[in-house]
Write the structure tokens for this entry.
Amino acid sequence: MSRRDEPFEERDDGPSAEDIERFSRPVDARCQECGQRVHEDVDICPHCRAFIFPDDAPAARSKVRPLRTIFLLALVFIVLVLSGALALLMR
């Protein structure tokens, strides 16, 4: 069966010019957390699982740590309140 006789869906024309351009660029991004080199199009570092933010978005990166800190402080506060309430009930 020649290539012309194959149905359109079964033809593999190979990568498009856009794919070649996108994937032929060198890996030039680094993870902000672990410093490993990663492809510039990734959102999460495959080495340490940290989010990768573009260099032009420092504000988005700075929001992640304060939210984590607020969550941990709220969790500690809730545990302390519940343990105090439990101590009062056990009296």
Q: What stands out?
A: Strands lie at 29-30, 37-38.
